[in-house]
Amino acid sequence: MAEYCISRLTAIGSKRQVHQFRLGQWEQSLKAKYGEPLEWPSGRFVCQFETSSPPLEQLKALSRLWPKITLLLDYEVEEKRIKGLAKAKDGTMESHQVSY
Question: Exposed e or buried b for every residue in 30-50, given b needs 16+ CB within 10 A?
C-alpha cells in the first residue's frame, strides 16, 4: 500500500490576499491531490487534501510567495502513525510532529 498524507491547510490574512491565494496555484505548489475546500469566510480559507508525504518544504516555499498570509498545516500519515502541525509565514516555518 502506498503511503499518503492527509492534510488540512488554513490560510489567514486580508480578505483580498486570501481570495487571491484561494484562486491561485497553491495545489500545484503543495503537490496536492483531491483538494476539497471546507470553509472560506472573509480573511480565511480552509481546505483538505492528500499528498504522498507531509508537504513541509513546499509549504515553506509557498509562504515565500505569499508573505502576508499565515499558512497553518495540520497533517497525518496514518500508516506511519504520525501527526504534525506547521506554521509558515514569509519563508519561515515552525513545525511539530508526534508519533502515536
Answer: bebeeeeeeeeeeeebbbebe
Query: Cβ neighbours of residue 23 under 8 Å, at least 6 residues apart?
Result: none
Cell of 18: 486570501
For 52-83, how does the pLDDT look when each residue is reduced to its tens digit (9 = 90+)?
999 999 999 999 999 999 999 999 999 999 99
CATH for 91: 3.30.70.1270
Residue-wise DSSP of 30-61 = HT-EEEEEEE--TTEEEEEEEESS--HHHHHH
SS3 67: coil
Question: What residue numbers bound the domain in which 61 lies?
Answer: 5-99
Q: pLDDT per residue over 21-33, tens digit each? A: 999 999 999 999 9
Q: DSSP letters of 9-33?
A: EEEES-HHHHHHHHHTTHHHHHT-E
